[in-house]
Amino acid sequence: MVDTKIPPGTAADGPAGAAGGRAGQPAAPVKGSRRAWATAASGRTAALLVSPTLLVLTIVVLYPTIMALRESLYGPKGLDPKTGFISTTEPFVGLQNYADIFGAAGDRFWNAFWNTTFFTVVTVGLETLIGVAMALIMHRAFSGRALIRASILIPWAVPTAISGLLWRWIFNSNGVANAILGHQVLWTTEGFHAKVAVIIAEVWKTSPFIGLLVLAGLQVIPKEVYEAARIDGAGPLGQFRRITLPLVKPALLVAVLFRCLDALRMFDLPYILVGAQKNSVETLSMLAQNEASNVRFGPAAAYAVILFLYVFLIALGFVRLLGADVVGDGGSPRKKKSNSKRRRALGPDSAEVSA
Amino acid sequence: MNARTTRALQCSAALVAAGLTLTACGSSGGGSSSGQSQSPSFEGRGPITYAAGKDSSGVVQKVIDSWNKLHPKEKVTFIQLPTDADSQRQQMIQNAETKSDAYTVLSLDVVWTSEFAAHQWVDKLPEKQFPLDEMLKPVVETAKYRDGLYAVPASSDGGVLYYRTDLLKKAGVTEAPTTWAEMKTACAKVKKLPEAEDMSCYAGQLQKYEGLTVNFSEAVNSAGGVVTDANGKPNVDTPEAKKGLDFLVDSVKDGTIPKEAITYQEEDGRQAFQDGKLIFLRNWPYVYSLAQKSQVAGKFAVAPLPGLNGPGSSSLGGHNLALSSFAKNKATALDFMKFFSSQDSASTFLKDASLAPPYQALYDDQALVKQYPYLPVLKKSILNAVPRPRVVQYGDVSSAIQQETYAALTGDKSSAQALKDLQEDLQKSAAE
Fold this sequence. Notes:
The complex is a heterodimer.
Chain A (H helix, E strand, L loop, with lengths): L5 H32 L2 H32 L24 H4 L7 H33 L5 H13 L2 H11 L5 H6 L10 H28 L3 H9 L4 H29 L3 H6 L10 H10 L3 H33 L2 H23 L1
Chain B lengths: L2 H16 L3 H12 L14 E6 L5 H12 L5 E6 L3 H13 L7 E5 L3 H6 L18 H5 L2 E2 L2 E2 L2 E7 L1 E5 H6 L9 H12 L8 E4 L6 H13 L16 H16 L11 H9 L3 E6 L3 H5 L8 E4 L12 E8 L6 H11 L2 H11 L6 H4 L2 H6 L3 H9 L10 H16 L5 H17 L1
Parallel strand pairs in B: 1-2, 1-3, 8-9
Antiparallel strand pairs in B: 3-11, 4-5, 6-11, 7-9, 7-10
Helix pairs in contact in B: 1-2, 1-3, 1-14, 9-10, 9-18, 18-19
């Protein structure tokens, strides 16, 4: 079960794994400290109350993660040339699946790894710029603002698989994109233009998301701050750089973190828009899925575990960055706030994955 | 249950199902008359399931219903899997890996037989109990792995050449081309007509997906080459295979195949043909009835695929029935497979869903030919067909073919280099 569900699991592992760790850690000290000052009875009640949560987390998070880790230590089943049958057991190969990445067979992995990284950096970068611009526009008071806000949400509301189909139609050889360009680009073939197609579709879909989160951040900035700035003679650019950006930064960083985690596990958009097994757009999730569908669960699990670690590291880095920054310009009360934000940052994401 | 009762049941079931004559019934029973006693593993009677891709025409349920009416204690439940082949395969593998008995009879794509047989996910079948000698030989071959029968052909499919009769006639070409050179000459003549100025000559399915494997194999086989030899050993680094690949690569280069055709799947090509952009199109028979409803209706016909020195070879499509190794009630399953793959069922599938039958006799049935004028061409196509590589790691073989062929088509590699690299890749996956 674990092995065949690797592609979605890959994504789920990242944030969900982190969630498991968080839930596990507090449980132990609480138990220990309780025992120091409370009666054994209340300790038992606590254990009783926490146990359903722990049980559920064990079943839905811990067990699949451990199974995936275990699976990644096994190689593909071999074919017996005499009988023509595949052996029934998988050979234990230790860390061979991981070591293979650095060998001759690693080309495809590294290609997928760099594609994943490239897509994440480029799409999140563009989305941030466009999203902030969208938020600034939406923040202005004008008639029909509610309508604009609602319509900006539409791309985000469309399921990725559907928007993949939509853009495949646009990037068809006789599609709208080529009609506008007046030049035939074969978007869904191999090459840099395939990457461009994926980036355009992805940015279209997810910029509104950053826009909305930043808009929420903008709306809590008190008007008085701007009034004071105007009195001090700051121009619009100065106001943006000195006031808007620093004050909206916590919200913006959360949005960017969300998007990074999402982009790292990108699967359905390139898969549907350009196609499976296209080197130019193959991401790590697609590679893991492809290996699993060719009944090589070991390497597939290994790729998934690496992607999990990659996502985990990026998330960790962000959370650290987020905490450090807020400490830098605020005090300890702010830090607390950022912590709760951090939880929220991971919470909805893991919920989305398991859904 | 002894063979006679089985036959009687099968016969009566077939009668109800398709309402065919007694002679047809006699012939379908004849195949199993020489059958030996059932092998001991096919035991148990009771309800079973049939797992196949989504049934858009409803005919599968209809045939199953007629079985259920006759076998109230051995009911078959139809489990509909997703439409696309990859997810069907994935679900079946998942079912097998967990040794689940949820699926009894599986509808396998013809290229999966080796994989499922080698993993022992499906049972070896008693060959003599099925009327294999009444079926087209290449179709039966797709159901075999290492000389054992692991599946029974249920439906077949072959590639055919669609061409614009109106334009060819106007340009003075009276017969459909049988070679690539003839096709190019015909195109040159047609393109001189004012109404065909903007048309392209030919297209198939050249996007990087399974369709490319099909089209590449056809080109190689039609030029006298092989992808894998009779023992499953890859052999593509040959002059013949190069001539086949060169046909595709050079045609894209010189514009015989339009540049955009390297993004075509089945439907894109059909659309282009129906829009009057193509003079020749390689596609499956399903296009026929749809094109009859388009603006090219009555202006096109079908012919066997052309080749290098004469008619070419198609790749085979279609589906086979296999019996899951982990299923229960295998005696019922075997009977159901006989019923479902019988000539009467095949004729129902042809009439209601225009699925190409595996049985020779149906292609010569004049009433059917009248309804489906492409049947004789399709029969020729299937008889000349070569199955796609019959290897255990078909997924890897197919992606290697797609990888190298696409590199040659987009001009990233010369066709000689692509074939050399392909040979290496295929040898690697054959060794695993």
